[in-house]
Amino acid sequence: MMQTDTLDHLMRALADPTRRSIFERIVHADEITVAGLTEGSGVTQGAISQHLKTLKKAGLVIERPQGRNVYYRVQPEGLEPLFDWMSHYDRFWRDRFANLRSLLKEIDT
Amino acid sequence: MTMTAAPATTTRDIVVDEVFPHAPETLWKALTTGALMGRWLMAPTGFEPVEGCRFTYQTTPAGAWDGVIHCQVLSVVPNERFAYSWVGGDAGNQGYGSRLETIVTFEIFRVAEGARLRLTHSGFSLPHNETAYENMSRGWKSVVPNIGVIAGEAA
Description:
heterodimer; A: mainly alpha; 2 strands; B: 7 strands; 23% helix
């Protein structure tokens, strides 16, 4: 069905409000450096780096070194396990509705 | 970036809303007859379309969960509304088989084409077998709208 440990990592990574807002800033920024993330965050650059490490490990962000800077961007597939988990019952009911449609055709003649 | 205390876990509803080219009465029959229910959803055990009736579905077990979904009929308004509780799973599971304490509601509306059926499966909450997860509840609302942006990245 799904790799539980992947989902665990993902949820833990996003469970921290500071880390989550860092992730959201990366989402909106397209690409951003640690310095850019630190600016106006009220958190130290060291703390930001730690959070980025966790986000990277959870598969949520990827880095691109360029000269002396490292740019962070969102890993598009990163959130997939979360959506699989959330949408299990969405899919379940949609499939059941399709069954219901065929059954009704059969019994309603 | 502000640090705020996590609120109580929020829940999320699943809604599926479709029009069927059949009379509400036909739809009602398919929804509330045990034998027919088994043909489109799952075969219930001990089901009667009577308020208060307790019945079960047997699904695939997962981890410490035996796969039994415990239900109780909450509301029966012929051809209009049918609701029951849907409880199962185990806190040790995630994804399939995670702990669920939910309510399934079917509403039928007569329309020109036949009948509109709206299913609401409500009360999904985040797994709170670990306190950390509770912080996530605030996250959904802010993370989910960003998916469009992320999907755009993937394109």
